[in-house]
Amino acid sequence: MMYKTVTIVLITILSVSFVINCIDKDVASQEPIPQIYNDTRSIMDTIVTIKVVDTDSTHARMAIDNAFEKVHYVDSSMDYFDNTSELSRLNTDAQLFDASNNLTYVVNKSIYYQHITHGAFDITILPLLDLWKSKFVPGGTHQPPAENEISETLRLVNASNITIKGNDIFLEEGMKITLGGIAKGYALDLAIDSLRKDGISSGFVDAGGNGYYIGHRPDGTSWRVGLQNPNMSEQVITVVGVTDMAIATSGNYERYFSEEAKVSHIADPRTGYPSQNLISATVIAPTGIDSDALSTSVFVLGEQDGLKMIEELDGIECLLITNDKRIVKSSGFEKYEVASA
């Protein structure tokens, strides 16, 4: 499943840098030593890493496995490429009766984001993405779609036209949705919730640039996340310390519809054309679903409108890299920055 390719696969400029210092063991007390346990797997078209702080390896592995099950669940139910998934059946039939609470929640949340972003975030963008991709496949024109093609397809793009009655979801004819700009963040939320229910109070889940961090490192400090310089992958532009917060970054410098196209993978649902307002947008938020959807939204909105929206939302901060390489931060972003990793 592709996430945030063309509003879908989230482009990551996050490079996580961790310095883990285990707490010294008091020999007299013989108390267990908190340690880091981790696992990495390929899910949701990206690399997912889960790390936890625990004193028992068996318990830690159990908690990690349970958290991975939540990520797999989101992938299997919200992957529109999978013909058996709920989302695929909704796109095929234009209706889905008795949808799961999880899918219903994500679709409802997506409609909310479409509203507060004035259409910059819209999960019904899939027909438009398919139109663009069709131009650059073997045998395609290798030219952008014609204006009339885009105008015609844009008639199908409007999340406000999704109807939800209880757990029944209805789409208008021809409409199709993708949850690539939000599902990964929701998967983080479910995984973190699973860890907490299993008694894990410190750790993180990172999914290809989306991260959710809880508690502290064994040395008592917050988790460190380096925001990577998009032009120099070995360097970071800043390091943030986060506890019980999620971070996501959207950018246009790694993935394209095709190398020939050289256009942003994140399209603007309002215009039908690729969004090229920023190089990247990083959002820190209390939940994974917020950081995921809002990083895409800000990227599409651009510097002025994106920053304005973030400043109006409680508990949300952002860092933007403009096309002329300026670094723009929301008013409260600096409180997360730390001197070193």
From TrEMBL:
Its cofactor is Mg(2+). It is an enzyme of class 2 (transferase). Pfam families: ApbE. InterPro entries: ApbE, ApbE-like_sf. One of its GO terms (molecular function) is transferase activity. Its EC number is 2.7.1.180. Keywords: FAD, Flavoprotein, Lipoprotein, Magnesium, Metal-binding, Transferase. The keyword Metal-binding applies. It comes from the Archaea. It catalyses: L-threonyl-[protein] + FAD = FMN-L-threonyl-[protein] + AMP + H(+). PANTHER family: FAD:PROTEIN FMN TRANSFERASE (PTHR30040:SF2), THIAMINE BIOSYNTHESIS LIPOPROTEIN APBE (PTHR30040). This is FAD:protein FMN transferase. It comes from Methanomethylovorans hollandica (strain DSM 15978 / NBRC 107637 / DMS1).
